[in-house]
Amino acid sequence: MQEFQLICDFDITATGAYSYRPVIIPGVTKTGYEINDKQDWFRVVNQQRNWDTVQQILSLRTQIELVELPQCVDQQWHFTVGLDSNRIASTIDKSLTIIENDFSNVPIILGLLETKTKIDHIQTSGKNKNLTINIL
Asked: What is the fold of 2-14+48-135?
């Protein structure tokens, strides 16, 4: 199992809010996020959707072992994940390249709590890079 740290410039807050399980407004999601109006509800649902997207991409090639949930620090969401990189490629560097390619150009939802990215898809390289993956 190899650990990777992901840093996102788009909001991937794990709210536990799903559009098919609405809360009574005002209310609280199962993870404790307060919902005061429909705008709050749509925000926490879309934050969860972005988080689900990131997890699904990581799960394309191997099982993930989630080490921690994303934490927002200075408008960047950080989390660490364990992946069986041997199932992805023969070397860690190749695994990293494959994972970065899996993320490239996948749509994301903007207009949440992020301020550092203005593009509506994931970029792992170039001047519009909004996702960084580090090998730990």
From this structure: Alpha-Beta Plaits (3.30.70)
